[in-house]
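task queued by scheduler; priority normal; single chain, no ligands, no partner chains; default sampling; output format set to structure tokens
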Amino acid sequence: MPIPYVKLIVSTMVACVAALALTPPVRSMLTRLGVVDMPSKRRINKKPIPRGGGIALVASFALAAIFAISVLGLKDRLWNSDFTPYAISAAAIIVVVGLIDDIRGVKPIVKLMAQVAAACIVFAGDVSFGHLILFSVPEWIDLIITIGWFVIIVNAFNLIDGLDGLASGLAIIGACGMAATQLLRGNAAVLPTLFILIGAGAGFLRYNYNPASVFLGDTGSLFLGFLLALTPLAGGGKAVFIASVGVPLLVVGLPLFDTVLAILRRSARAMLGTSNGLREVVLPDVEHLHHRLLSSGMSQRRVAGILYAMAAILVFTAVGLSVKGSPSYGTAILGMIVVLGIIGRQLTNVELWYVGNALNNAATSLPRKLLALIYVGLDIAVLVVGWYWSAELTLIPHIGLVGLHFVGEFPFFFFSIFASFFAFRIYNRRWDYSQGLDYFVLLAAVSIGCLVASSLVDTFSSPTLGFNRRVPVFLALISVPLLGIRMMRVVLRGLLATARRGHGDHIRAIVYGSGIGFYVLYALFKHRFGKEGGNIVVADVVDDDPDAIGSYVQGFHVGDAAKLESIVVKSKATAIVLSKGVSPKTLSKLKAFASSHNLLLKRFAFSLRSADVADRK
């Protein structure tokens, strides 16, 4: 069917005008009801700002949709069909739970169950992920995949909504990307939904962009994530799997990437035995991408602009992928690599630090015999996969993984290589402290095993067509992963060293107190730094004494203790050391501050011992 461009543009304008008109009264209502975000350590806003403004966005979307149906006669896969009641019911659950969370707060498990319920309702309406897969899957697997799809994308937008205009701006960019792919395919099935979403988001962004006068809240962020998860499932088909799945994943790539990082670092903290245990995974933190950019001294507008640009590059990549043979393909891929490179620079000090330490602790705690068994299992997998792909790459006819061609000669190589491994004592070596000779011996063992196997095949079996081509390809294919498996722990140690250089091989401490205690402590740190057990250096000095603030001690400018948070960010400190006595109330506040900012807290005593240590989260 022809695409009604004029009607789509009109519906977008209606949605935008509706959002511009509805947001101010909604903002006033939320303020009167006391539904506001108060400034706090985790909040970026410096003054109370009403949250839950997503109500205006939802209302403007609904009004524009009604207008598009009744006046413009636009048809959408989500409207004017048997699926409409299901879509409305699922969206209502998401919006209601989000609104309750904005007003009084709900537990994370409640929001998760609401998302699962919404996905189940969508599935009951015969819209599911399975309709996009090129092969049939059992219904229960289709349901699980559909639920996972909704939970991942909805939470991605919910978690990234921590900066003025960020979630709403990224949703607009994402909807533009999805609309572009649909237009290029000539598919008008869900275009009205996307265009109205763009209009409503743009109208709301007028009040949500920095300096924001109203926040989306969970009402808006959950609704945006729900629509962007639902639209590709409703508008795609089996013939356009990449465009219907791969493109939306790139379109929501930035919030999705931020969500994956959040789960990764929180899980690693839980593995490291934090005081919160498994609860660490669902507890909020201040290490999302926008928090890190803000901590570098950028303004909110600049951070939002950078993240918008990254998202736009990913969207451009997605559109390029959906156009076969488009010249924009290569440019888009290069752009995506640049984005990943920029993001990658932000990982060293956080994710690499936590995950690397967690993996290192786990590997160190494993018994040697268990590690050897893991190596054996990985080696078996490498041999099987390598044998199969050696046939594929040499274009040798074969009868699949369980065919005679696969089974006939493989046992000779399997047993010969493992016999060579045991002869060279490969599984008895300490690969976490390996040297170049160890890897040379491994390659020699693999090569000798393949040579022996080839001789056995010649002696006891008739080599199949292309056997002489296949053996060197097989040897080349398995050598790299077999070496890589052994190098994993060495590489991990190297990555941890890199992370420590970014995160700090030493503890950067802010000294609280600039009196005689500081001089003694400073002399101690300077004397012991670089020696075993003495890895603390002074990053900055603060004091709560008005006479001391602004002075200089040992070249350090004494800062105001009331501005401790900004000083911690600026100095990249990882610990606070008290060099003087403080009141119980002040000590309690400092402990809470250290805990919320993932800092080590120590109190220096003149006996040169440390006390009052708060566990590092």
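post-processing summary
- The chain has three domains: 5-244+252-263, 366-501, 506-614.
- The beta strands are 36-37, 49-50, 507-512, 536-543, 552-553, 556-560, 575-578, 600-604, 610-614.
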